[in-house]
Design brief:
142 residues, alpha+beta, 4-stranded mixed beta sheet, 1 helix, 33% helix, elongated
């Protein structure tokens, strides 16, 4: 009798946790798409803003890797490569009068006083000649 109960419990756990895992994956994909479009829009805004300028993109969400290539930003989850099927990208309009410093920003973590881990946000530093994405720390140590 206990074997049947155990089997039913395992089947129930399987059917309860599988949709939860699928929801997590779809929310991660949503966040990557949102981040790619949002950062591309932010880069467009940085190009048109008066200089000198510092902009912090402080999204409280999953740690992602941001890859800036010619005219686009690629958002990757941990362990994904730039050419993987899970990579999400969005285009931005480059201003050819200003140099954009292309680079890859890896996710980093800053330890706060309470022992919580916080994702270090992305920042853009710009002047009349260049725009550069950087990792930045706001209000933390690291």
């Amino acid at each position: 009798m206990w074997l049947i109960d155990l089997t039913l419990l395992l089947v129930l756990i399987f059917f309860v946790f599988m949709p939860a895992l699928e929801n997590y994956e779809s929310s991660k994909l949503f966040y990557k798409r949102f981040s790619a479009k949002n950062i591309a829009l932010l880069v467009d805004t940085v190009y048109t803003a008066p200089y000198p300028l510092k902009v912090f993109y402080d999204e409280k969400a999953l740690p992602m890797t941001y890859v800036f290539e010619e005219g686009k930003v690629i958002v990757l989850a941990k362990g994904e490569g730039e050419k993987s099927l899970g990579a999400v990208s969005s285009d931005f309009i480059e201003d050819k009068n200003k140099e954009f410093i292309y680079k890859k920003i890896e996710p980093k973590v800053s330890l706060q006083e309470a022992g919580k881990e916080t994702i270090i946000p992305l920042a853009f530093i710009a002047n009349s000649r260049k725009v550069e994405p950087l990792p930045a720390v706001i209000g933390g140590s690291g």
